[in-house]
Specification:
Elements lengths: L2 E12 L2 E12 L3 E5 L6 H8 L7 E6 L2 E2 L4 H7 E4 L11 H9 L6 H11 L13 H13 L5 E5 L7 H16 L3 E6 L2 H4 L5 E6 L2 E7 H7 E7 L13 E8 L2 E7 L3 H10 L6 E3 L3 H25 L3
Parallel strand pairs: 3-8, 3-9, 6-7, 7-8
Antiparallel strand pairs: 1-2, 1-4, 4-5, 9-10, 11-13, 11-14, 12-13
Helix pairs in contact: 3-4, 4-5
Length: 310
């Protein structure tokens, strides 16, 4: 399947901040891909690079088969984009802003915009400045979708919305992907995104630490909880690929891919350790564990550097 979005070893730095660090990523058509991470992880930077609003320090990117450095304008014409705080002309009405935007797109834009406005229960005569944040988000989504883009990019679009509107907004993305189009959704609303995403890409401080089909990630990942009898006791070796290991005194939590439960239980039994608790985690559990692991590693690296100072 042809990729709609491709990153090839992309890096971007702002001053002393490494926004993206050698990111390589491929997203196929017809999926909802959620880009997750804490604030400052590099999500918005990745989107600005895709739209040609920033240039990478190194690496290349393609959107819909076009290089972002040489075809930025054409990409923006074919992509729908909704920002966290969409720039809307507050003095216009819902109808007027659709009419204005239609001048930049081929015939048919106005009719599709009107259909979307009705679908989202917007009133055409209402002034933009009188709308709630949730209603403004629906106007922005209508504007972004009215030219039926092959790729829809959403940057924290549900931030600050009430739960019902947020759910309606996200669930409308399922309809987009069902039509064979692609949605790239940058968000920190992990539990909400989990309901609609086909793929997840996790960014931690500019580094891509996971990109996978959500179903496969959840199917092969398990959380292991073990309470050691003594905080100084040595935890067992974990069979499988450890994504994260967090210790709280005598409590140890691992997030593990492809865990061999039989081997782990046998190891604990032979070492006279309690039987471990094993469960299937949510996407939010996986992300939080990886964030804690990253912060622990960062703290340890800083401590080592400070200790090495003369």
């Amino acid at each position: 399947m042809q990729s709609v979005i491709q990153f090839h070893d992309v890096s971007k730095q702002f001053g002393n901040v490494q926004a993206l660090d050698r990111v390589s990523l491929s997203i196929p058509a017809g999926v909802v891909c959620a880009v997750l991470g804490a604030n400052g992880a590099g999500k918005s930077t990745a989107i600005r690079l895709l739209l040609g609003l920033e240039e990478p320090d190194s690496g290349t990117m393609e959107v819909l088969g076009m290089n972002t450095s040489t075809h930025a304008l054409e990409i923006r014409q074919r992509v729908g984009y909704v920002a966290d705080q969409p720039p809307l002309y507050d003095w216009m009405t819902v109808d007027e802003i659709g009419w204005f935007a239609a001048g930049f797109y081929p015939t048919g834009y106005q009719g599709e915009y009107d259909r979307l406005v009705r679908r989202f229960d917007l009133k055409g005569h209402q002034k933009i400045k009188g709308l709630s944040k949730g209603m403004k988000a629906k106007v922005a989504l209508s504007l972004a979708m009215a030219h039926c883009p092959e790729l829809l990019i959403l940057d924290e679009p549900t931030s600050g919305l009430d739960p019902l509107i947020r759910r309606e907004f996200l669930e409308s993305m399922i309809d987009v992907s069902a039509e064979g189009r692609t949605v790239l959704l940058a968000s920190h609303q992990v539990s909400e995104v989990e309901r609609v995403a086909d793929m997840v890409a996790i960014l931690l401080n500019g580094r891509l630490v996971c990109v996978e089909r959500l179903e496969e990630l959840k199917r092969t990942t398990q959380e292991v909880l073990l309470s050691l009898p003594d905080p100084s006791a040595q935890p067992p070796e974990i069979s499988g690929r450890v994504l994260a290991h967090v210790a709280f005194a005598h409590e140890h939590i691992w997030m593990v891919r492809d865990l061999d439960e039989t081997v782990l239980r046998k190891t604990c039994h032979e070492a006279n350790l309690p039987t471990p608790q094993i469960r299937t985690p949510s996407l939010e559990d996986i992300l939080l564990a990886m964030l804690r692991e990253y912060r622990r590693d960062s703290f340890e690296r800083v401590s080592e550097n400070v200790a090495a100072l003369p």
